[in-house]
Amino acid sequence: MAIQPIRLFGDPILRTAAVPVTDFDKELRTLVKDLTDTMIDAPGSGLAAPQIGVGLRVFTYWVDDDPGHLVNPELVFPDEEQQDGPEGCLSLPGLTYDCLRRARVVARGMTMYGDPVVVEGRELLSRAIQHETDHLDGVLFIDRLDRETRKRAMKEIRGAEWAGQPTVTVKVSPHATRGKAL
Ligand code: NI
To answer: What residues act catalytically?
Structure first.
């Protein structure tokens, strides 16, 4: 187990686009292990490498008790259908807002061993894949809220007890997305 501290909103790495992985080496496998251990410990439904301070295009997800990971993901949406529902983020502990997402996603990427893989997601898995891929582009879910909700979110972020503490692991009671944040 190598649980890492989770970077919180305000840390510049969360606003920085991550770079593609080119070396599928032992270091990458350690990163995937750290992400998985940290995500499960949190607990969360997903965790992206920038959230533990690593600027690489890698994330893990944990939906239906089945942890997985993707390296260098590329998303395609097979249809126009959307889903609306509560979403949270381990980098914004304790805050949950309804966020509109695509209902289905097809994610193409690589495994940590360098093999091509396709993950098809719907409902929570689709939401998690979109949320984590956003993290790799420096995008946070609060960016995708409607104007009114986003205003409320910014106010609640300013008032949060963790505000201004860039790198602290905060244990919170389970919240968003069936009790787990992303
Ligand atoms: Ni997140």
So the answer is: 132
Pairwise CA distance, residues 83 & 113, whole Å = 33
Cα 87 to ligand 1 centroid, rounded to whole Å: 9
* Cα–Cα distance, 110 to 28 (Å, whole number): 12
**117 C-alpha vs ligand 1 centroid, how far in Å?**
22
Residue 129: phi, psi to the nearest 5?
Answer: -65, -40
Q: Which two tokens stand for residue 152?
A: 């409320």
CA of 135 to the centre of ligand 1 (A): 7
pLDDT tens digits for 133-162?
Answer: 999 999 999 999 999 999 999 999 999 988
Domain boundaries, the chain: 6-168
CATH topology of domain 6-168: Peptide Deformylase (3.90.45)
Threshold 0.85, pTM exceeds: yes
Does 86 sit behind a cis peptide bond, omega within 30 degrees of 0 on the bond before it?
A: no
Q: How far is CA 109 from CA 20, 51, 73, 135, in A?
A: 11, 20, 4, 16
The CA-CA-CA angle for residues 130, 49, 72, to 5°, reads: 60
Residue with tokens 């300013």: 158
